[in-house]
Structures are given as structure tokens and as C-alpha cells.
């Protein structure tokens, strides 16, 4: 069953919006990432609706899919952007983002990156350590500017997600210990070139159960009350990202109304607060398909069948890195018998697989397969390992589509190398 909206079969042909996937691939070849604009906008709409009239700024977390055409879809629809590097700042501006809607997170902001973000006049830095705060103040002083900041506070809440993608626990490198935070806020208040405007958190990614947000937000609301009682003027509460999507058949979509309620309710006595969200996966994952072609079928004498494709961990590393599940479906349904197979790529690593022991309709050499829910953390985590080029990217809108990243050539693989 396909859970993603805007992706369905029509007369045995896989469709994205009103376009046959096979028709796009005839032009682009494989491997290719396809994204449905309708799906991107639909996810955004659902999120906005859940928050009703709440004062809210949605900052698209562009790390999940940084193509400027994708970021632009959100920017055009009123969103800001959550960035984590100078490169993302550059991309966000190229995508048309209003700098006053850009928030900058990340534990390792360099002097150069901070300088650039100050010059761009972004909304705020989400500061992740005391040293970073000092660095921001010093750079702002050298430019004779006052720079808005939030502190990223670690509420010590277990997001109950994959251990590699939980971020709000005491042992994680992210954010500032809640016990140390108050003192750092006090220091920030003494600094001439920073202006404290908010508090930030991000407890983890791929949360399907929203309950941990409830736990975290109660802690944060109490924290904000304490800060305000000390005349520390918190106006923005940035919740970060984290809302998940159902990759597996048995998983349910997160309850967005409950999510919004858990975030806003603890702040009912503070109606002037503006909430900032940094969603990534929720907005983009389901809009994306990675289309690949079967190169070989290989059986071994241990009853193992490998479906060898022209894509793999170098284009979608999630299965190798987090044992993540992505459904893999045929681009043209043939209704053949089912087989148990490993879907593997060309990379010289045993971890190069997109599926293991997967029940799939039988496929043959030359068939096209679609890896679903691949829009988030797909192309952005791809690499040139083994000197394979990256996939093409295509944005589909209704009955039309445009190529938003061309196929890389062998020359592209050498770009930057000095010959
Ligand atoms: C600070 C911050 N904001 C936003 C996100 C986006 O998270 P997600 O894709 O889970 O919404 C992340 C990634 O986990 C993050 O680290
Ligand atoms: N890259 C991860 C999520 C990490 C979250 C980034 N802070 C994934 O593919 O699920």
C-alpha cells in the first residue's frame, strides 16, 4: 500500500501527481529523485492548520533536501528556513528566503559562518554553547551590530526514536544543559552585542508518538517563566523539527492536532509568544521517490536472491546507517509472484543495500523500481563514493515536471580537483 499522497497507480503505471513516472525516466534516465510539489504543499497545509491562529513561523529545515527549488516551494508559501551552515545560508538566500525568517542552528558554527549570517541579518542564532555565544558577541562587536539569539536548551527528554537520531538527551552533543542554561542566559544579558529573544530545543527526529513534546514543552514553559521573572525577554520558542512519517505499513501518521496542543497549551498564560517550528522530514519525505533500474538478478546457493540496482547507499544511506525501512515498488505493475530478495547497489561495501530479506513482486533485468518516502535525507546525504554520479532531481507539479538537478558528468566528478 502506498501511504504517500500524490503517488498512486493508474492502469498499472506508477504516477506522481498526473505524470507517469516512466515518462519522466524516459527523459532523465536512472537513478533519479522525483518530488511532488502537491505533496510538499499538502504537508505544509496540514501543519499550518493544526496550529490554527497560533503565532507561528515555520522554518523549513533545508538540511533534509537542500535543492533550492524545493526550499523555494516553502519560501514562496510564507516559510522561513532553518539552516545549519554557511552553505545552507547561501542556498536559503538563493532560494529567495527572507533573511528575517532564517534561524541558524548547529554546534560548530565557525567565525566565517557567523560573520556571514550577521551580514545577512538573519532572525536569530540558536546558540549551542557558551563559547559560541562569546564568539557571536565578539564578531557582532567588530561590526558594531546587535545580534538576536536564542539558547538551545537540552530538556533531557527521551524522544524514543532511533538512538542515532535522538538529540535532547543529556549525553547528546547538542544544546546547552538546562541546569547551566540560566547562567548562560544571564551572561548573554550582560553582553553588549547580543539581544536575547528566544529559547530553542530539538529533541530528536522521526517522532511518531508526539508525547515526548508534551513532556519537553512543560519543562520549557516553566523555564521560560523563570527566565521572564528574571527580566530575560523570551519572545520566541523554537521547538525544532522532529515530526515523523510512517515509513512502514503498520506505522500511523503522527497526530498533528495533538502535537500542536502539546506545544501551545503549556504557554497559555504567555499569549505574546511566537512559536517557531523547524520541520524537515514531515514536509518532504513522502513527496520523494528514488527511481532506479534493475541491472542484474543474482541467486546464490544459500537460497539468497539479490536484485542489483543502479543506486544504493551512495544515494540513499538511511537503510545502511539506521537500518531504516523504505518501501520499494515497481514503476510498472506486472502482478507477478512474490519473492524474498535483498535489493543491493553497486558500492563495494556489504552495507550497500536498500532492502534486506524483502518480500517483493518478482522483477527482471531492466525493470524500474521506486524507493518510496525518499524525499528527506536522501540526495543530501549522497556521495560520490566509488565515483558514481549523483541522481538527477525532478520536481513534479500537476501534469508537468521540471529537472531541478541535471545528471552529473564525469567532469563533474573531478570538479575542484587540481589537475
Ligand atoms: C536543529 C534541527 N532542526 C530541525 C531538524 C529537522 O528535523 P526533522 O527532519 O526531524 O523534522 C533537525 C534534524 O533533526 C535539527 O537538528
Ligand atoms: N538523517 C537522519 C535524521 C537525522 C536528523 C538530523 N538532525 C535520517 O535520515 O533519518
From TrEMBL:
Its cofactor is pyridoxal 5'-phosphate. Transmembrane segments: none annotated. This is Diaminopimelate decarboxylase. Substrate binds at residues 281, 318, 322, 349, 377. Residues 39-285 form the Orn/DAP/Arg decarboxylase 2 N-terminal domain. Pathway: Amino-acid biosynthesis; L-lysine biosynthesis via DAP pathway; L-lysine from DL-2,6-diaminopimelate: step 1/1. The modification N6-(pyridoxal phosphate)lysine is found at residue 63. HAMAP family: LysA (MF_02120). CDD domains: PLPDE_III_DapDC. It catalyses: meso-2,6-diaminopimelate + H(+) = L-lysine + CO2. It comes from Mobilitalea sibirica. NCBIfam families: lysA (TIGR01048). It comes from the Bacteria. Its EC number is 4.1.1.20. The gene is lysA. PANTHER family: DIAMINOPIMELATE DECARBOXYLASE, GROUP IV DECARBOXYLASE. Keywords: Amino-acid biosynthesis, Decarboxylase, Lyase, Lysine biosynthesis, Pyridoxal phosphate. One of its GO terms (biological process) is lysine biosynthetic process via diaminopimelate.
